[in-house]
Amino acid sequence: MRQDRFRFVRWLMYVLLFTLIPVWGQSVDNYPTKPIRVIVPFAPGATTDFLGRVIAQHMTQAWGKSVVVENKIGAAGLIGVDATAKSPPDGYTVCVSTGALAIYTATKSDVPFDPLNDFEFVAMIGRVPHVLVVNKDFPANTFQEFLALTKNGQAFPYASTGARSNAHFTGEILKTSTGILLQHVSYRGGAPAMADLVAGHIQIMVASLTTAMPFIKSGAIKPLAISTATRSSVLPNTPSLKELGYPEIDTAEWWGMIAPKNTPKPILDKWREELKKVVTPALMEKSPGLELFTMTPEDMRKLVQKELVTWKEVAKKSNITE
User: Fold this and answer.
1) Residue 183 is part of which domain span?
2) Phi and psi dihedrals of 83, rounded to 5?
């Protein structure tokens, strides 16, 4: 009797399995069959939102289904990323993540997701270097002059886009690598920080190059150094910190597409193929300073893994806590 029951259960499982396989395969082949949401973990108007909307518009036209941006803001992007991790892995939720994905665990012990194991890495979109900039009246025109001024006396305040942001951590690496005396001042975004820098209320800032470029061009601020290992094509006369003698400094804000863990590979592949058509040099030109940052999904995972270690070390050395 028990053997007969076992055989029946096994037969039923086979029937269900082979019944569902064609349906699942068809759902992947026909993807998408309903609206898709692109989670943007930051407010409208920022670079993350710009990229998300350009991609959503392209996908809507390419696939004939509505692809809608949902700005799910809060906790420096953590709320939107967490919502992505907890969404069904069916291809109908994706997220435009930033390099903050690797920063959350550097200072928080209760992050509700695992940056490496709770997501599928779809594709890298682009990156933008940070640039060390000073007010036009600051008495230094080169990085060497800046070093001489900031290694002695009281610490100079410097602005960033916010506490525990990529720009903040870049500023802290700069401090520990060079021995300069700087005191972090947190702002609620790049725009208000830049406004105070231009007005002279603060003299130094570690800024996104896209945020800084209009003010560099107008002469309101002066660029002293780029945070990536190579110079930026839009600021070719500004040296990188690596060539200035600090090879350990190679940071940038980046943007990449992620999806919930176990999203079917055929769907991820479809996203990757279509993203190649929209993530182009022409897109980068719409936001001066933004650079193509092509890498495989596995390379993207390795970058996050590397930055998880880097940012944790920075937080420890600089005593950055929640």
Assistant:
1) 129-226
2) -60, -35
